[in-house]
Amino acid sequence: LSDIAQKRSSVSGEENKNKQYTSEEVRRHRTLDDCWIILNDKVYDVTNYIALHPGGETIADVAGGDATLM
User: Fold this and answer.
1) Mean pLDDT across the stretch 6-21?
2) Does residue 70 sit in helix, strand or coil?
3) pLDDT for 8 beyond 70
């Protein structure tokens, strides 16, 4: 995991599309109500996706962290 990843998500809006975040900043978003994950050095706000995720709330296992190898 690199220390800086880019947040790329249409969920969060275009204004944040290419903003960079440290891994510490991503770790602050590790609840089901505010859930970000890192995939391949990109940060995604998946809060609204949790209800649609096939594994449901199991996505919380990687909330605020790197889900690349999951």
Assistant:
1) 58
2) coil
3) no
